[in-house]
Amino acid sequence: MARRRVSNPLALAVLSCLSERPMHPYEISTTLRHRGKEQSIKLNYGSLYSVVESLQKHGLIAARETTREGRRPERTVYEITDAGTAELEDWLSDLLASPVREYGSLEAGLSLMPSLPPDDVAILLTKRAQVLRIELRTLDSMFVEAAELKLPELFLVEGRFRRAMVQAELEFVVALAKGIADGSMTGVKSWRRIHELRGEGVSFEQIMDDPVRYLGEEGRLLQPPDAR
Q1: Helical pair 45-57 and 25-34, crossing angle rounded to 10 deg
Q2: In angstroms, rounded to a whole number, what is the distance separating the alpha carbons of residues 163 and 140?
Q3: Which is the most buried residue in 106, 179, 205, 227, by most CB within 10 A?
């Protein structure tokens, strides 16, 4: 994926808004919120101004005019430049066509979960599943309301994507919690035994010095290759 002069996804949303017509930052913010884009792109007013300044600095947008309404502060209206239009089209094409390896918080937690006892992890994953079910119900309610308003599917596509991701995560988390809780997941027996031993005062270093002694044949996998 190409390196961007301004890499914040909010910058892409700003360029998209300005590709429709010139706007001032507050109008960009209200437009994005009205369209529910804060569900997909982190949006706050302070960072929006920083993004606008950065886009202007790199020649992707330009100040068109400054206006004032009554006693309100002056507002600068911005428009997209030719370079900004090219950046928008290239960036969006890249996002849609090129998968990117992203490091999510759940994946990080899963990679390090053996640091907690397995029964604790199963409980935590079950709690996560409850939250995911609530999100699914919220999304489904939104789709029902959208159908009643006869909104085109085009306006719901990111919500559909989010629902598919949440559903897949829910199914994975439920199956994982079950496999840990009932011991059907391979490796759980040794994982549980390690935490039992540590509770008895045996250090992790001691266990790793002679894993077969403490864990039986499963412990052999924890030995260096030349010691198996």
Answers
A1: 120
A2: 8
A3: 179
For the whole model, what pTM was predicted? 0.84
**Residue partners of 72: CB distance under 8 A and separation at least 6:** none
Mean pLDDT of 170-192: 97
Among 3, 142, 117, which Cα is nearest to 125's?
A: 117
- Say if residues 184 and 194 touch (Cβ distance below 8 Å): no
d(CA 132, CA 144): 18
Mean pLDDT of 66-79: 81
Give the pLDDT confidence score for residue 70 in this predicted structure. 66
- Place 91 in a pLDDT band, splitting at 50, 70 and 90: very high
State the helix-helix crossing angle for 9-20 and 45-57, rounded to 10 degrees. Answer: 80
Q: Is 70 exceeded by the pLDDT of residue 126?
A: yes
Mean of the pLDDT values across residues 34-51?
Answer: 86
Amino acid found at 114: P
How far apart CA 135 and CA 162 sit, in angstroms, is 10
CA 125 to each of CA 89, 116, 172, 191: distance values in angstroms, whole numbers, following the listed order: 40, 12, 10, 17
